[in-house]
Amino acid sequence: MSADTVIRPRRNSLRPVWEEKPTLIGQFGKGAILTVVVLAVLVPLWTVAVTSLSSEKTINEAGGYVFIPREFNPSAYVVIFSGGQVTDAILVSTIVTVAGTALSLIVTVLAAYGLSRPGTLGHRGILFYFLLTFLIYPGMIPSYLVVTGLGLKDNLLSLILPTAISAFNLVVLRAFFMSIPGELYDSARIDGAGELRILTRIVLPLSKAVTAVVGLFYAVGYWNAFFNAILYIDRSDLQPVQRVLQQFILAGQSPATSGAAVAIPGLGSSVPPSLAIKMAVVVVTIVPALIIYPFIQRHFTKGVIIGAVKG
Amino acid sequence: MSELASETAGMGAPSLVSEPQETVVKKAKKKVKVVSRQQLSFGKRLRRDWPLLLMCLPAMLLLLVFHYVPALGNIIAFQDYNPFVGDDPLEAFLYSEWIGFGNFEYLFKNAAFWDSVVNTLSITAFQLVFYFPIPIFLAILLNSILSPRIRSLVQSVVYLPHFFSWVLVVSLFQMMIGGAGLLAQTLRQAGYTPPDMMTDPDTFMFLITSQALWKDAGWGMIVFLAALAAIDPALYEAAAADGAGRWRRMWHVTLPGLRSVIILLLILRLGDALNVGFEQFVLQREMVGREAAEVVDTYVYYQGIAVQQWGIGAAAGLFKAVIGLLLIVGANKLAHRFGEQGIYRKS
């Protein structure tokens, strides 16, 4: 009787019965490592956010970065959103991200659907055509020559078209479309639906989650794209946010002469942006990722990404 | 029977008789299928499948223009490409002089190019030791945490930086540990002289590896967590019943459970040895200097586009592409030898 009660696990414990009790050092060590790892990610983000919301005075008192929030002073955000280089950049990045994601998604969904029925004309050849992109890369220099040769220099299309298709996303979508039972297609066809109708009325509603995740990955890619802008965009009013971030933080440049900082009293055009403004730019580049992230994360459990990673 | 099958398929409405047809197919199996496919003429299949082909077309065109044409364009590596002999790149290509392997001869005698190759390979080697094992370690550690709340909290936080751009990651490092960063600021206030870890070429290897870890180590756990979740818990229980302690269980159950994923990823990383990332280096090359930060990709960019030695840059790019292709194919052979799938299946 008493032996039974000893072996029986506590009802609310997740620990299997056969597992030995954790050692104090082990528990402490694990906790310490995980805390360090989590803090390593959160501390920089926290510091950036707090500093961006601080006034010039607080920043001077702290000697630079502010760690402990003392006020809520959104003036840096007012500055960067009230016209000038950063506002332009945010606009450019938003346009590129929205238009690019729409284009990528439409083209990828169409191709994934077109490839989802083995046995159709040219199926193997077309599939091979897409998969070969995994092995053969275009060189940077020929790509540059093609894009500039098409007259896309200083054109926002140069930030969209070269990266519009990811064969990986296409394969993920195709695999999902193929898992939809064929009877659904057949019954739709009996009812007289054409391929486009089947795609929009049956296949897409069934694969909302995967399509959304693929779209979000495209969106993150467009928002984060940086180097294409160095290659193809010279005009300062067409630079995306990542490029502006690089100029501010890494190259230590001040904003362009007709920039936002000029309009603010006490910040002449020769003065580099104050720390708060720089940090506000950093926050602005992070926020879209932060907004999108929970949506992507919700689908981790659905196995979309894990399945894709495992191939 | 086979006629029926082919006819219905040809009409584009196989579903009408799909049930009886299926039983036929099952009875006669392959025979019917093969016959029916052969009897469909090209025209009939085109009539049936043209909407699907049309759907593939936009993606194929985009890849043709922005992927395959540039891939073919690599042949300017055999030219003394001069953009000024024509009005546009195509014309310039047609009129530029062919010089055979001249660009490659220049390249192979060029010390800066070999420096970039050596840098790339040493970074790969360094990261195999100091990057590769970390996600495995973290995944095992996290897997041993029982509380689902803590697990999902940690996962949410450490996956996040994967979605940040390299500009952002390098900027955040600059702000934290750079010469004017938070750490330097704190040290200075405490009366120490802080080192500038962002510009020191001697510690550059550690710097880029910690940036890569910060950005992607968490994300890298996913595949290992999936493999850990697939290990049968009964194995642990049986091992415990046989008297294995926690370390022995890790050695005899956990690690063997991860073995195939580890081997696969290791082989793939070797196949990708010449790819260490581009933006991370192009962003920091100015800060630490060419000697430490030049990798093959940045060499291509600076030779080809910044200095406008188009042919030589393209030659370096083609060299990397060819070696890279050989490495990938080799790595897949190796993966198949180990009984793993690799990135493409054995056919």
Summarize the structure.
Chain A is mainly α and 311 residues long. Helix content of chain A is 64%, strand content 0%. Chain B has two domains: 74 residues, no CATH class; 236 residues, MetI-like (MetI-like fold, Orthogonal Bundle).
Please give the structural blueprint.
The complex is a heterodimer of chains A (311) and B (347).
Chain A: H1 2-7, H2 24-52, H3 56-62, H4 75-81, H5 85-114, H6 123-131, H7 140-149, H8 167-178, H9 182-190, H10 195-206, H11 208-224, H12 227-232, H13 241-250, H14 260-263, H15 275-298, H16 304-310
Chain B: H1 2-10, H2 18-28, H3 30-39, H4 42-72, E1 79-80, H5 89-95, E2 97-98, H6 102-109, H7 111-130, H8 133-143, H9 148-159, H10 166-177, H11 182-189, H12 204-229, H13 233-241, H14 246-271, H15 279-288, H16 290-293, H17 296-306, H18 310-337
Antiparallel strand pairs in B: 1-2
Properties at a glance:
heterodimer, A: 311 residues, mainly alpha, MetI-like fold, 2 domains, globular, B: 347 residues, two-stranded antiparallel sheet
Q: In total, how many beta strands of chain A?
A: 0
Please give the number of β-strands of chain B. Answer: 2
Amount of beta strand of chain A: under 5%
* SSE class of chain A: mainly alpha
Largest β-sheet summary of chain B: 2 strands, antiparallel
CATH topology of the largest domain in chain B: MetI-like fold
CATH class bucket of the largest domain in chain B: Mainly Alpha
| Average pLDDT for all residues of chain A | 83
**CATH fold-type name of the largest domain in chain A:** MetI-like fold
Cα-to-Cα separation, first versus last residue of chain B: 33 Å
- The sequence of SSEs of chain B as H and E is HHHHEHEHHHHHHHHHHHHH
